[in-house]
Amino acid sequence: MAFLPLSTPARRIGALLAATGLVAAGLLASGVLERSAVARDVETPLTPEAMKALAPQGAKVAAAADCFACHTARGGAPWAGGLPLETPFGIIHATNISPSAEGIGGWSRAAFHRAIRDGIAPGGRHLYPAMPYTSYRGLSPEDVDALYAYLMTRPPVAVANKANTLPFPFDQRWTLAAWNFLNLPAEVAEPDPARSPLWNRGRYVAEALGHCGECHTPRNALQAMRSGAALQGAVIEGIEAPDITPSGLRRMGFEPHGLARFMAKGLSPQGGATHQMFDVVHFSTQHMDAADLAALSAYLFDRDALPAEPETPPAPAPAAVPQAVSLRARATYAGLCAGCHGQAGEGIPHVSVPLRTNTAMRVANPGGLLRAILVGLPAQRFPGHERMEAMPPFAALIDDAALADLATWMRAEWGGQDKAVTPEAVARQREGLRADASH
């Protein structure tokens, strides 16, 4: 098949577009279009006395920002990095942030500010947004200084950073300049004078310090948070991070005081924190001031003040289930579940969480419930010397049809869910877990 040659105008247009693209790429790569949130006054180093005075506040900032959980590998040295983070583009390893030569030991105050708030490390090296600098951009300079002082007073750990496993072109860090240009907020949110100090503090804790949206906000094709769907839920490493908007929280059975207690303790009538949320409670929120947890709850429920007393969220009305499904499911529940979770799903203190008030029955996606039944949950210790026993895996003891009936009945009976779980959905979940285990 013959191709006709391009006309002279077409060639000129093509050349112009190519040249424009090259110029744009050059500008992005050069950093000319980078928008920094960092003021020039951080060029002045902090004195040793200031570092010592700021470190205790920095410990609180580090806890609220959940730095330890990401920058400490399981069984690894504190702050030495190495934790693998799964992304749609490959594996990114958290880096060493101890004050060693392999970590941030040579970083200046200004360099630390630019890394935290602009996503650019010394030497102009762009950080991957798996490090939530898009949220940390909203941190106050005072909190960044305190965090810097705290980290620089930790013991240095000489552990080399692990290489990421990203295919081309995602392994090219200069391309992140374009990502930042498109997705990094140009401005930092200022306090809203129309809202209370409690709500405004809660917004700072949720959006900047705690960076809740990084897990609970769905992402677009470029893996940037979708601003129009803030906190409406997402899937992170195969685990559902639920909708935590006011309506989503109420649907799960939370009320403001109860949510603050859950963030402090990791246990509530709605269940126990699991997977990444367990780490959030264990390493972060249990160490936060009660005032900040109250502010966080007020913001997430969009209230200027917490109610004087805890509220009792209404239980959803049971949804109808075919009698045959109900009979089969009740028999399965009695045989597999009732011994630990109670005949009526009431749970057993210090052994197992309740099911009849559990969020897994009330969220739209049954994936979390199916996953827990198939692969189980580890024994966990919670703040206040509380614990829950391990939940064994039941994958070998229940087939897809029986699990579909069980999940359908429990979610209808205790969550008011009128959409049946199908054997096909169970099969997909089972296959996905097999694929995860093979990696």
UniProtKB/TrEMBL annotation:
Q: Would the keyword Heme turn up in this protein's UniProt record? A: yes
| UniProt KW RNA-binding keyword | no
What protein am I looking at?
A: Mono/diheme cytochrome c family protein
Supply the alphabetized keyword list: Heme, Iron, Metal-binding
Query: What is the organism field in this record?
Result: Methylobacterium aerolatum
The record places domain Cytochrome c at: 53-155, 197-304, 324-414
Q: What parts of the sequence cross the membrane?
A: none
